[in-house]
Amino acid sequence: MSMDGLDPAISVAENYRVWAREAQGRSPAYVTLANAVADDSTILGFLGTLRDLVRQEPDRLSQVMRARRTQTNEAARCATLLPALAQLPEPLALIEVGASAGLTLLFDRYTYDYGDQVIVGSDPQAPTLHCGLRGPVPVPARVPEIAWRAGLDLNPLDVSSDDDVRWLSCLLWPGEGDRAERLALAVASARRFPPVIQRGDLLTDLPALVSQAPAGATVVVYHSAVLAYVDPEDRERFAETARGLGVAWLSNEAPGVVPGVPLDGRNDGTFVLARDGATALARTDGHGDWVEWLPVPDGS
To answer: Exposed (0-12), middle (13-18) or buried (19+): which is 148, by Cβ within 10 Å?
Structure first.
């Protein structure tokens, strides 16, 4: 769980305690702040008054909420997705759903440090993505050939816009390692090699984008931390669409978010990397810090 998806069924104080547990080991500032809020009746009372704002000034609140969306674009997630991408026939045509500013379309620009193995990307000024390995992760010797790439987003962010880049920086957790520096370097790389991102809805516009991919390439539709923001009924619709397109489909989402992907019972910020909405390949850190490869199910 993140603060974007607080559970309304439990108290405000408990929601903040859950947030503190998720931020443990990542953002000391968030841990301190969240626990302080949970224990402060004055702050909790103030937060309770925000419900009055919904009733008294819905138009103004709605305007603010519509102006911005949670569109975290963590480049380090490329390191957890890369082993799955590399198992597919080359060349690849990448389509990212919920692409935000397109930073996770730039797999071949980044350098990857998996501890015992380093994969050098094509942009020497792009960030190095450090990712710990757990289990028999099939780390490739190189980044697979990417013949074409495009993103799809309801509200694409423009890496050439300082205002959009500032918004991306606002979505980072304060004090969490080197994420701010990594974002800055990834944005700079994207400005040198701008990704193409189309404005559109994943429920209606994905088939048309898939049709634009070049013949002879393996089309890969993928997303990370996206479907949690989609209603459960629409997740089912999206899954049905993705399965019917004849493409490779990689999802990197929280447990229980992708229809058909087996649950692992965790609720600790861990994602499940799955193929075609059916086979769980790995558990991954939500911000790309590590990947844990799972055993191949019997009969697969």
So the answer is: middle
pLDDT for 4: 44
State both tokens at 3.
């603060």
Given a cut of 50, the residues of the chain with pLDDT beneath it are: 1-9
The DSSP string of 139-194 is --SSPPPEEEEEEEESSPPPTT-HHHHHHHHHTSPTT-TTHHHHHHHHHHHHHHSP
Helical packing angle, 58-67 and 41-56, nearest 10°: 100
Q: Does 124 reside within a domain?
A: yes
pTM of the shown model: 0.78
Name residue 222's beta-bridge partners. 96, 250
Q: Same domain, yes or no, for 199 and 217?
A: yes
- Residue 132 structural domain: 77-293
Domain count, the chain: 2
The DSSP bridge partners found for residue 252 are 224, 273
DSSP three-state, residue 22: helix
What pLDDT does residue 61 have? 65
Same-domain pairing of 212 and 82: yes
In terms of Cα–Cα distance, which of 100, 30, 105 is closest to 70? Answer: 100
Return left, alpha or beta for 187; rule: phi > 0 is left, psi -120 to 50 is alpha, else beta: alpha
- How far is it between the farthest Cα atoms of the chain? 62
- Token pair listed for 262: 């087996």
Query: Considering the domain boundaries, does residue 157 fall inside one?
Result: yes
In a domain, 253, yes or no: yes
* pLDDT of the residue at 5: 46
